[in-house]
Amino acid sequence: xxxxxxxxxxxxxxxxxxxxxxxxxxxxxxxxxxxxxxxxxxxxxxxxxxxxxxxxxxxxxxxxxxxxxxxxxxxxxxxxxxxxxxxxxxxxxxxxxxxxxxxxxxxxxxxxxxxxxxxxxxxxxxxxxxxxxxxxxxxxxxxxxxxxxxxxxxxxxxxxxxxxxxxxxxxxxxxxxxxxxxxxxxxxxxxxxxxxxxxxxxxxxxxxxxxxxxxxxxxxxxxxxxxxxxxxxxxxxxxxxxxxxxxxxxxxxxxxxxxxxxxxxxxxxxxxxxxxxxxxxxxxxxxxxxxxxxxxxxxxxxxxxxxxxxxxxxxxxxxxxxxxxxxxxxxxxxxxxxxxxxxxxxxxxxxxxxxxxxxxxxxxxxxxxxxxxxxxxxxxxxxxxxxxxxxxxxxxxxxxxxxxxxxxxxxxxxxxxxxxxxxxxxxxxxxxxxxxxxxxxxxxxxxxxxxxxxxxxxxxxxxxxxxxxxxxxxxxxxxxxxxxxxxxxxxxxxxxxxxxxxxxxxxxxxxxxxxxxxxxxxxxxxxxxxxxxxxxxxxxxxxxxxxxxxxxxxxxxxxxxxxxxxxxxxxxxxxxxxxxxxxxxxxxxxxxxxxxxxxxxxxxxx
Length: 606
What we know:
seven-stranded antiparallel sheet
């Protein structure tokens, strides 16, 4: 084995820059796979880490040592912080702390709708500095839709600015975005001090203010008015499917009876006759309001649930949306049914690709909906009791579109969750504890004091984020240990005018902003931080200024619906197309870049 090791070492030394070339090839292939999504993002990330590990295992570094940095991402402090902060945020969401904020805006909306809308945007901006953007936007989507409907403003004019404002707010603090934490940790790995809690606050607030003014003035002019489609959507068709069981009100009915006259299609899937029998599976296609009227008139929803449960109120029918982070994506409904919360029953689905007149004319809708594949943006009808419906709000798989006027009773662990959060934040701000330790203790206390059940804590951990962070850190370590980051930095510096750090930082901001819209902001944060530090050292400028450029650039994910989960989250409710993101987001990035140049010139004296 020693002989083989020595031979491989000799081969390595005989090929100039073997490791540098190998790292670049792996990174380029990884980026291509992430953009095209030929396979899942998680699979691409793990395959990339495996490829890097194999390269350094087969061809050791020139000093004869193996490169262990490939696997450091699994134990990296920034990854631990991101996971723990997600658990803390989910604990606040679960106990109803964020519900109190949303209820405040609901009360304001009853007094003045327009004031409620403005205060909501300000609230989202402030909240996003301390909470994960995704649950924040999920919470506010139905509220904003209700208020915009009351003001007779199209949802499409408001929802995308909502997503952008949450991203701008996430730049303001160290924990406002996982991107900020990753840059902070990368700086510490490079031997620098890293960011303080409010290190990015002043530049982020200035850029945020500029961005919000731009959105306030131009979003209504640039974004489409989808009022007609929204009104039409209210009359759109759902496919529902249920087992008749022993419902005596339905048994012996004929499909030609008047109770079915308002529906576009009615089929008995397991019965060739036109008469409904016991245990038949009935499929109905129709408007949501007609379906709900039918279900309540014939007491169907009571038969679909466990009536032995002790509930003060009857079952409710709610509409939900498959979120961009849903684990249900690409799965058949039949498999999803087994993962639903206890007591909930999937009743039907609305999707423009599944329900249309051509399909009905061809008789294709008679196929059972359990064989359908769920996709992001699908609208799902669920039936369940209040407790089960409340559980949806802690489930990142679905966004609750209706039932928003129902104010749930506050959780009894509400005060404990607030205390845990405030202690965690204050210890990070005062630097009594590091971000990693404070977030880990905060997450632990959320579980120990039962603010968040363990099953929901597990759901708060997104494996996609974990795998992408591990992959990004492996690539960053590969760039650093092989000197590739310095090599890239030297190339960039050579093409820049000498002694012009202002131009260098500005171009870095634009480069990172470009890549963050085709990759993930986490990957960009980790990949560009060592390059930014190397450029700063070559130009003899404070590396923290260049690191700031990476943070702000990596968060400028406004041009595509896939560049940030919140962008994808509002795509279906707002009825947006790809061009809408580009038309509103591209000018926003240019305006932020110009503002950043002025900020560097007059505040940082570059």
